[in-house]
Protein backbone atom coordinates (compact mmCIF):
# COMPACT_ATOMS: atom_id res chain seq x y z
CA UNK A 1 0.00 0.00 0.00
CA UNK A 2 2.84 2.40 0.84
CA UNK A 3 4.52 1.60 -2.43
CA UNK A 4 1.37 2.51 -4.33
CA UNK A 5 0.99 5.79 -2.46
CA UNK A 6 4.63 6.65 -3.02
CA UNK A 7 4.40 5.90 -6.73
CA UNK A 8 1.24 8.00 -6.91
CA UNK A 9 3.03 10.97 -5.33
CA UNK A 10 6.02 10.50 -7.61
CA UNK A 11 3.70 10.86 -10.61
CA UNK A 12 1.42 13.53 -9.10
CA UNK A 13 4.06 16.05 -8.05
CA UNK A 14 5.71 16.51 -11.49
CA UNK A 15 2.30 16.61 -13.18
CA UNK A 16 1.07 19.25 -10.72
CA UNK A 17 4.21 21.31 -11.35
CA UNK A 18 3.68 20.99 -15.09
CA UNK A 19 0.03 22.03 -14.77
CA UNK A 20 1.03 25.05 -12.68
CA UNK A 21 3.69 26.06 -15.20
CA UNK A 22 1.08 25.82 -17.96
CA UNK A 23 -1.71 27.72 -16.20
CA UNK A 24 0.35 30.47 -14.57
CA UNK A 25 1.24 32.39 -17.77
CA UNK A 26 -2.44 32.59 -18.71
CA UNK A 27 -3.41 33.75 -15.21
CA UNK A 28 -0.61 36.31 -15.23
CA UNK A 29 -1.67 37.61 -18.65
CA UNK A 30 -5.30 37.94 -17.56
CA UNK A 31 -4.18 39.74 -14.38
CA UNK A 32 -2.07 42.23 -16.35
CA UNK A 33 -4.79 42.77 -18.96
CA UNK A 34 -7.21 43.96 -16.29
CA UNK A 35 -4.84 46.53 -14.76
CA UNK A 36 -4.29 50.18 -15.57
CA UNK A 37 -0.89 51.29 -16.79
CA UNK A 38 -0.20 52.87 -13.41
CA UNK A 39 -1.03 49.67 -11.54
CA UNK A 40 1.18 47.67 -13.87
CA UNK A 41 4.15 50.02 -13.41
CA UNK A 42 3.79 50.04 -9.62
CA UNK A 43 3.59 46.24 -9.28
CA UNK A 44 3.09 43.96 -12.25
CA UNK A 45 2.78 40.82 -10.12
CA UNK A 46 0.26 42.08 -7.56
CA UNK A 47 -3.33 40.82 -7.89
CA UNK A 48 -5.67 43.46 -9.28
CA UNK A 49 -8.09 45.30 -7.04
CA UNK A 50 -10.82 45.79 -9.64
CA UNK A 51 -10.87 44.66 -13.28
CA UNK A 52 -10.57 47.31 -16.00
CA UNK A 53 -12.46 45.87 -18.95
CA UNK A 54 -11.76 48.93 -21.09
CA UNK A 55 -8.36 47.42 -21.97
CA UNK A 56 -10.13 44.63 -23.82
CA UNK A 57 -12.23 47.18 -25.70
CA UNK A 58 -9.14 49.20 -26.62
CA UNK A 59 -7.35 46.14 -27.97
CA UNK A 60 -10.47 44.95 -29.81
CA UNK A 61 -11.34 48.23 -31.55
CA UNK A 62 -8.44 50.68 -31.47
CA UNK A 63 -5.65 48.11 -31.93
CA UNK A 64 -7.50 46.34 -34.75
CA UNK A 65 -7.93 42.98 -33.07
CA UNK A 66 -11.50 42.77 -34.38
CA UNK A 67 -10.21 42.97 -37.96
CA UNK A 68 -7.47 40.42 -37.28
CA UNK A 69 -9.97 38.09 -35.62
CA UNK A 70 -12.28 38.25 -38.66
CA UNK A 71 -9.34 37.58 -41.00
CA UNK A 72 -8.29 34.50 -39.03
CA UNK A 73 -11.85 33.25 -38.82
CA UNK A 74 -12.30 33.50 -42.60
CA UNK A 75 -8.96 31.93 -43.50
CA UNK A 76 -9.13 29.12 -40.95
CA UNK A 77 -12.74 28.20 -41.80
CA UNK A 78 -12.09 27.90 -45.54
CA UNK A 79 -8.72 26.18 -45.04
CA UNK A 80 -10.10 23.54 -42.67
CA UNK A 81 -13.09 22.90 -44.93
CA UNK A 82 -10.77 22.27 -47.90
CA UNK A 83 -8.43 20.15 -45.79
CA UNK A 84 -11.27 17.91 -44.60
CA UNK A 85 -12.75 17.57 -48.08
CA UNK A 86 -9.48 16.80 -49.84
CA UNK A 87 -8.07 14.77 -46.96
CA UNK A 88 -11.13 12.55 -46.60
CA UNK A 89 -11.35 11.93 -50.35
CA UNK A 90 -7.65 11.12 -50.59
CA UNK A 91 -7.82 8.95 -47.47
CA UNK A 92 -10.71 6.97 -48.93
CA UNK A 93 -8.93 6.51 -52.25
CA UNK A 94 -5.61 5.47 -50.69
CA UNK A 95 -7.17 3.06 -48.19
CA UNK A 96 -10.00 1.41 -50.10
CA UNK A 97 -9.46 1.88 -53.85
CA UNK A 98 -7.00 -0.29 -55.69
CA UNK A 99 -4.94 1.61 -58.27
CA UNK A 100 -1.33 1.69 -59.36
CA UNK A 101 0.89 4.00 -57.35
CA UNK A 102 -1.40 4.35 -54.32
CA UNK A 103 1.27 3.01 -52.00
CA UNK A 104 3.85 5.47 -53.32
CA UNK A 105 1.42 8.38 -52.96
CA UNK A 106 0.76 7.43 -49.34
CA UNK A 107 4.49 7.16 -48.64
CA UNK A 108 4.96 10.54 -50.28
CA UNK A 109 2.39 12.08 -47.93
CA UNK A 110 4.11 10.39 -45.02
CA UNK A 111 7.51 11.71 -46.11
CA UNK A 112 6.09 15.24 -46.46
CA UNK A 113 5.32 15.22 -42.73
CA UNK A 114 9.06 15.26 -42.01
CA UNK A 115 9.85 18.32 -44.16
CA UNK A 116 10.02 21.48 -42.00
CA UNK A 117 8.29 24.53 -43.39
CA UNK A 118 11.53 26.51 -43.10
CA UNK A 119 12.99 24.33 -45.86
CA UNK A 120 10.31 25.27 -48.39
CA UNK A 121 9.42 28.80 -47.26
CA UNK A 122 11.68 30.59 -49.77
CA UNK A 123 10.52 28.59 -52.84
CA UNK A 124 6.93 28.95 -51.64
CA UNK A 125 7.26 32.71 -51.34
CA UNK A 126 8.75 32.97 -54.83
CA UNK A 127 6.02 30.83 -56.38
CA UNK A 128 3.30 32.83 -54.63
CA UNK A 129 4.88 36.11 -55.71
CA UNK A 130 5.11 34.94 -59.33
CA UNK A 131 1.44 33.88 -59.33
CA UNK A 132 0.17 37.03 -57.61
CA UNK A 133 -0.95 35.24 -54.45
CA UNK A 134 1.10 37.27 -51.97
CA UNK A 135 -1.05 39.33 -49.57
CA UNK A 136 -4.28 37.63 -50.64
CA UNK A 137 -6.67 35.41 -48.73
CA UNK A 138 -6.64 32.66 -51.41
CA UNK A 139 -2.84 32.60 -51.24
CA UNK A 140 -2.78 32.07 -47.48
CA UNK A 141 -5.55 29.47 -47.69
CA UNK A 142 -3.67 27.52 -50.35
CA UNK A 143 -0.48 27.72 -48.28
CA UNK A 144 -2.29 26.30 -45.25
CA UNK A 145 -3.86 23.51 -47.32
CA UNK A 146 -0.51 22.60 -48.85
CA UNK A 147 1.20 22.60 -45.46
CA UNK A 148 -1.32 20.49 -43.52
CA UNK A 149 -2.81 18.28 -46.24
CA UNK A 150 -0.22 15.47 -45.82
CA UNK A 151 -1.05 15.29 -42.11
CA UNK A 152 -4.79 15.20 -42.83
CA UNK A 153 -4.42 12.55 -45.54
CA UNK A 154 -2.28 10.39 -43.28
CA UNK A 155 -4.77 10.42 -40.40
CA UNK A 156 -7.81 9.91 -42.62
CA UNK A 157 -6.12 7.03 -44.45
CA UNK A 158 -5.24 5.43 -41.12
CA UNK A 159 -8.85 5.72 -39.97
CA UNK A 160 -10.43 4.44 -43.18
CA UNK A 161 -8.07 1.46 -43.15
CA UNK A 162 -9.78 0.26 -39.97
CA UNK A 163 -13.18 0.08 -41.74
CA UNK A 164 -13.81 -3.49 -42.99
CA UNK A 165 -13.53 -3.87 -46.75
CA UNK A 166 -16.73 -5.94 -46.68
CA UNK A 167 -18.73 -2.78 -45.98
CA UNK A 168 -17.35 -1.12 -49.10
CA UNK A 169 -17.95 -4.24 -51.20
CA UNK A 170 -21.53 -4.49 -49.93
CA UNK A 171 -22.17 -0.86 -50.86
CA UNK A 172 -20.79 -1.46 -54.37
CA UNK A 173 -22.98 -4.56 -54.77
CA UNK A 174 -26.00 -2.45 -53.81
CA UNK A 175 -25.32 -0.31 -56.86
CA UNK A 176 -23.37 2.59 -55.37
CA UNK A 177 -20.70 4.23 -57.45
CA UNK A 178 -17.32 5.13 -55.94
CA UNK A 179 -18.68 8.58 -55.13
CA UNK A 180 -21.79 6.99 -53.61
CA UNK A 181 -19.67 4.78 -51.36
CA UNK A 182 -17.67 7.81 -50.27
CA UNK A 183 -20.74 9.95 -49.57
CA UNK A 184 -23.08 7.34 -48.07
CA UNK A 185 -20.65 5.05 -46.26
CA UNK A 186 -17.22 6.56 -45.68
CA UNK A 187 -18.30 10.06 -44.64
CA UNK A 188 -20.72 8.83 -41.91
CA UNK A 189 -18.24 6.24 -40.63
CA UNK A 190 -15.41 8.79 -40.75
CA UNK A 191 -17.15 11.50 -38.74
CA UNK A 192 -15.17 10.87 -35.51
CA UNK A 193 -11.88 11.10 -37.39
CA UNK A 194 -13.07 14.13 -39.36
CA UNK A 195 -13.96 15.89 -36.12
CA UNK A 196 -10.61 15.10 -34.52
CA UNK A 197 -8.57 16.05 -37.58
CA UNK A 198 -10.67 19.18 -38.09
CA UNK A 199 -9.93 20.34 -34.53
CA UNK A 200 -6.20 19.74 -34.97
CA UNK A 201 -6.12 21.50 -38.33
CA UNK A 202 -8.02 24.42 -36.81
CA UNK A 203 -5.46 24.73 -34.03
CA UNK A 204 -2.57 24.50 -36.48
CA UNK A 205 -3.96 27.21 -38.77
CA UNK A 206 -5.19 29.46 -35.95
CA UNK A 207 -1.85 29.42 -34.09
CA UNK A 208 0.30 29.89 -37.19
CA UNK A 209 2.52 32.94 -37.34
CA UNK A 210 5.30 32.11 -39.80
CA UNK A 211 3.22 31.31 -42.90
CA UNK A 212 0.86 34.25 -42.37
CA UNK A 213 3.77 36.61 -41.70
CA UNK A 214 5.47 35.43 -44.90
CA UNK A 215 2.44 35.73 -47.17
CA UNK A 216 0.47 38.68 -45.74
CA UNK A 217 2.18 42.07 -46.00
CA UNK A 218 -0.57 44.64 -45.42
CA UNK A 219 -1.99 45.39 -42.00
CA UNK A 220 -5.58 44.91 -43.24
CA UNK A 221 -4.89 41.27 -44.13
CA UNK A 222 -3.06 40.24 -40.98
CA UNK A 223 -4.28 37.22 -39.09
CA UNK A 224 -4.88 37.31 -35.36
CA UNK A 225 -1.55 35.83 -34.29
CA UNK A 226 0.43 38.14 -36.58
CA UNK A 227 -1.63 41.05 -35.27
CA UNK A 228 -0.72 40.13 -31.69
CA UNK A 229 2.98 40.19 -32.52
CA UNK A 230 2.59 43.64 -34.05
CA UNK A 231 0.94 44.96 -30.88
CA UNK A 232 4.19 44.58 -28.96
CA UNK A 233 5.73 47.40 -30.96
CA UNK A 234 2.64 49.59 -31.13
CA UNK A 235 1.86 49.37 -27.42
CA UNK A 236 5.33 48.99 -25.90
CA UNK A 237 4.40 51.59 -23.28
CA UNK A 238 0.92 50.12 -22.66
CA UNK A 239 1.51 46.53 -21.60
CA UNK A 240 -2.07 45.98 -20.27
CA UNK A 241 -3.47 46.65 -23.77
CA UNK A 242 -0.90 44.32 -25.29
CA UNK A 243 -1.80 41.66 -22.71
CA UNK A 244 -5.47 42.15 -23.61
CA UNK A 245 -4.66 41.37 -27.24
CA UNK A 246 -2.81 38.22 -26.19
CA UNK A 247 -5.81 37.21 -24.08
CA UNK A 248 -8.20 37.72 -27.01
CA UNK A 249 -6.04 35.46 -29.17
CA UNK A 250 -5.72 32.79 -26.48
CA UNK A 251 -9.38 32.47 -25.46
CA UNK A 252 -10.65 30.62 -28.60
CA UNK A 253 -7.82 28.09 -28.41
CA UNK A 254 -8.39 27.64 -24.68
CA UNK A 255 -12.10 26.99 -25.25
CA UNK A 256 -11.30 24.35 -27.86
CA UNK A 257 -8.92 22.58 -25.50
CA UNK A 258 -11.35 22.71 -22.58
CA UNK A 259 -14.41 21.37 -24.38
CA UNK A 260 -12.87 19.09 -27.02
CA UNK A 261 -10.07 17.35 -25.13
CA UNK A 262 -11.20 13.83 -26.01
CA UNK A 263 -11.47 14.59 -29.73
CA UNK A 264 -7.99 16.14 -29.73
CA UNK A 265 -6.54 13.06 -28.00
CA UNK A 266 -8.33 10.77 -30.48
CA UNK A 267 -6.89 12.75 -33.37
CA UNK A 268 -3.36 12.56 -32.02
CA UNK A 269 -3.58 8.78 -31.58
CA UNK A 270 -5.56 8.09 -34.75
CA UNK A 271 -2.59 6.75 -36.68
CA UNK A 272 -0.91 4.88 -33.83
CA UNK A 273 -2.67 1.54 -34.45
CA UNK A 274 -2.81 -0.53 -37.57
CA UNK A 275 -6.16 -1.85 -38.71
Automatic annotation (TrEMBL):
InterPro entries (UniProt xref): MetI-like, MetI-like_sf
CDD domains, A to Z: TM_PBP2
UniProt organism field: Microbispora cellulosiformans
Major site of localization recorded for this protein: membrane
A Pfam family reported for this protein in Swiss-Prot or TrEMBL: BPD_transp_1
Protein's name according to its UniProt entry: Carbohydrate ABC transporter permease
Membrane topology, as annotated: Multi-pass membrane protein
PROSITE patterns (UniProt xref): ABC_TM1
Residues annotated as transmembrane: 68-92, 104-125, 137-156, 193-219, 239-260
Localization terms from the record: Cell membrane
Amino acid sequence: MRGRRLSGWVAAVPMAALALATVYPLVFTANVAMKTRREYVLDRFAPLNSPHWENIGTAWSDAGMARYFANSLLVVTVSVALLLLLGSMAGFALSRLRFRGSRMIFLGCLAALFVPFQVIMVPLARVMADTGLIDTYPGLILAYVAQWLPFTVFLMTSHYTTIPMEIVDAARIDGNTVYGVYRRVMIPLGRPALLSVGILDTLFCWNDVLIALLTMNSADHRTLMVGVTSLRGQYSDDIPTFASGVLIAAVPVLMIYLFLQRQIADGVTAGSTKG
